[in-house]
Write a structure and sequence with these properties.
It contains nine helices and twelve strands. The chain is α+β, with helices and mostly antiparallel strands. It has one domain: q2cbj1_9rhob like domain (Jelly Rolls, Sandwich), CATH 2.60.120. α1 crosses α4. The longest helix has 19 residues. The radius of gyration is 18 Å and the shape is globular.
């Protein structure tokens, strides 16, 4: 775990060789790693403003947000809806981890956010999609989810809970290959670790690592930005619909364009959410 405060777009004091060594160990052992203080707090506050604006817009139309349980919502957005998108995807730690785990041709396939509001309940233990064959046969991670909290997380807010090491659980006997049977819950609960990120921290995890949201008994929502990145051929892009306009594309650094395989369009169309996880939509376990 790194702890150097760093302005957006500036090196975190680690070379590309040093950062992946620790992060790779975390990811292959525990299924999650983090960089503390990667971004300035005022930068994160602007991200929070953009998330709030995008959520209001998404909730104003059909299929703009998808439920992930009672009082818990997920929204996918276009890169242009986030002022800090370039800072996020060019941060040296993010780039180094993507290269080390997914290869030099990694692809940015998802940008969105998850918000558990007051009243959100415990989710079932789950992973976000079935285990790919490459992971099962070769123990190779083919995708990463980067998470950035827009608030300082405390216990009452329903922190994210993860069962380290479970990214390697076979999962073919899970419901939809995503939801383990309840008789296995004691194993996950023995391993469970709750995460309390502060503004500026960013984590990277395998979405295969079994995890859940916990009850938000506070008076505040807990928005978390999500950046999904794939190795070539991983196939998660088909679940997402982000795009960029031609004018925005022209202004992006080549470093970003090289890893952004989404459509380039004349005008953006509001995203109708389709990355539904049925077992979470149904509500409490």
């Amino acid at each position: 775990m790194r702890s150097q405060p760093t302005p957006p777009g500036q090196p975190a004091g680690d070379t590309d060789e040093e950062v992946p060594l620790e992060a790779l160990g975390d990811l292959y052992r525990d299924g999650i790693t983090a960089c503390r203080g990667a971004f300035a707090v005022d930068w994160v506050d602007r991200v929070g403003e953009d998330v709030q604006a995008a959520f209001r817009e998404a909730r104003s139309r059909p299929d703009g947000a998808v439920g992930r349980g009672p009082q818990r919502w997920y929204v996918e957005i276009h890169p242009e809806q986030l002022r800090g998108f370039v800072d996020l995807v060019t941060h040296p730690w993010v780039v180094a981890v993507c290269r080390a785990v997914l290869g030099s041709d990694y692809q940015i396939v998802e940008l969105g956010f998850d918000i558990p509001f007051p009243g959100a309940v415990t989710q079932p233990w789950h992973r976000d999609f079935p285990m790919p064959q490459d992971t099962r046969r070769q123990r190779r991670l083919t995708s990463l989810a980067f998470n950035l909290s827009t608030v300082d997380t405390v216990a009452e807010m329903g922190p994210f809970e993860i069962a380290p090491g479970t990214q390697w659980d076979d999962g073919r006997d899970f419901d939809h290959q995503m939801f383990p049977p309840k008789e296995r819950y004691p194993r996950y609960e023995r391993r469970a670790v709750r995460k309390y990120p502060r503004r500026g921290d960013i984590s990277a995890r395998s979405a295969l690592t079994v995890h859940r949201g916990t009850p938000n008994v506070s008076a505040l929502p807990r928005p978390v930005l999500v950046l999904g990145v794939d190795a070539p051929g991983a196939g998660n892009a088909e679940h997402h619909d982000m795009a960029v306009t031609r004018g925005h594309w022209a202004g992006l650094p080549e470093q970003v364009r090289a890893h952004l395989p989404c459509p380039v369009v004349d005008a953006l169309t509001p995203i109708r959410q389709k990355h539904t996880i049925e077992g979470l939509v149904m509500g409490a376990e």
